[in-house]
Specification:
By secondary structure, this protein is mainly alpha-helical. α1 runs antiparallel to α4 and α9 runs antiparallel to α17. About 60% of the residues lie in helices and about 0% in strands. It has one domain. It starts with a helix and ends with a helix. The protein has 20 helices and no strands.
Length: about 375
């Protein structure tokens, strides 16, 4: 590829991802078009709860980082800060992805459109607000696409696990990229330091399991969070974050939106389209595998986030995370094999018209499209009713 062709290719890659980022920002700023205003963002406690207030607790890393540096006090309205920092996180995901594509010379337009406009990656990150998903994805992306040193890889693993315990389900994809990306050889296999990330992850998980619940009473927790986020007080049933950080896993297993109840209600059909997307992504990435062992581990890595259905209720979020693991590993392997052509590129790109996937509400797998259709129906009834 000549210098001019390379420059034009880089411009095209940037244009594709910039367009996707703009679409994501449009969804992120839906408060401009929503009667709820800032409250449409959802919960914001996770950006303000700090270890210094409650001692160590699960899902407290990001809030502690922002609180102790004073970053979350740059705006007087907590919702404004949440929206601001979410813009930065989504932009980081987009910029790191486009940088990787340019660096590795991944220039197939159809392939890139399927990545940039995926209903699970950049655009979905702009839609799923009020949670820590965007940070979970950002940490996983950095480790899968960029990090190949034991120390830094391990540090990011700890940060991710302390950010949200469901980050654990992205570990197989990260380990797959790290160990296969580092090109295993006998010397590395015999070097015990090479297994430091595995040990560090186990220790971090044990810390979360043993010490992840705050010992502060609920009343004291909520009173302090009311001081931290007065604009969000009582604006959401889970506004303070106490249930998320203090409830045992059993509470989630017994949730009325558990996987078993979903099958019993017949609502499982809402999961089929996103799951089909994950299947297509998996079939494509398998084309880059070298041998059955590598393929089996790859499928397990992509499927791991789906296991969150046993402990988490927002199934569309974690189907999207499974899709994201497939997308990131596809980028990793496409760069390794220097190939982006696939018969699956077109059907995967067609799924982009369904972006973004949903989040908490099972009956809304395609929330933007369903919102538009409902709006059209309401306006029609208003005019002709």
């Amino acid at each position: 590829m000549s210098g001019l062709e390379s420059a034009n290719s880089s411009k095209l890659v940037r244009l594709i991802f910039f367009s996707a980022l703009c679409f994501s920002f449009l969804l992120l700023n839906r408060w401009l078009f929503n009667d709820l205003g800032f409250q449409s963002y959802g919960r914001i406690w996770q950006l303000y709860a700090s270890y210094t207030d409650f001692g160590f607790f699960r899902r407290g890393f990001i809030g502690t980082l922002f609180s102790e540096t004073g970053i979350n006090s740059i705006f007087t309205n907590e919702y404004v800060f949440a929206i601001f920092v979410h813009h930065i996180a989504v932009a980081a995901i987009a910029l790191l992805t486009v940088r990787y594509c340019i660096k590795e010379k991944l220039a197939n337009p159809l392939f890139l459109i399927g990545i940039a406009f995926s209903p699970a990656l950049i655009i979905h990150s702009g839609y799923t607000t009020g949670s820590l998903d965007v940070f979970v994805l950002l940490f996983a992306l950095i480790n899968i696409l960029y990090i190949r040193t034991v120390c830094l890889f391990s540090l990011i693993l700890v940060a991710g696990i302390f950010t949200h315990e469901l980050f654990i389900f992205t570990l197989p994809a990260q380990f797959w990229a790290f160990y296969f990306g580092c090109k295993l050889n006998r010397r590395k296999i015999r070097n015990l330091t090479y297994y430091t990330p595995l040990v560090v992850s186990i220790v971090a998980i044990l810390i979360i399991v043993l010490y992840g619940r705050p010992e502060v009473p609920e009343r004291e927790f909520k009173d302090l969070m009311r001081l931290r986020i007065p604009n969000a007080f009582d604006k959401h049933p889970l506004w303070s974050g106490y249930f998320e950080v203090a409830s045992p896993v059993a509470d989630h297993l017994n949730s009325k939106t558990s996987l078993l109840s979903i099958f019993e209600s017949g609502k499982v059909f809402f999961l089929f389209p996103p799951l089909l997307y994950v299947i297509f992504l998996t079939l494509r990435v398998l084309q880059y595998c070298r041998g059955h062992g590598e393929a089996v581990l790859l499928v397990a890595s992509i499927s791991a986030p789906l296991l969150t259905s046993l402990v988490a209720t927002d199934l569309h979020r974690w189907i999207a995370m499974s899709a994201n693991m497939a997308l990131l590993l596809t980028l990793h392997l496409a760069a390794r094999e220097n190939a982006t052509m696939s018969k699956w590129n077109l059907p995967i790109a067609l799924f982009c018209v369904l972006a973004p996937f949903g989040a908490a509400e099972l009956e809304r797998p395609f929330p933007l499209h369903q919102f538009v259709l409902e709006k059209i129906k309401t306006d029609w009834l208003t005019i002709h009713g």
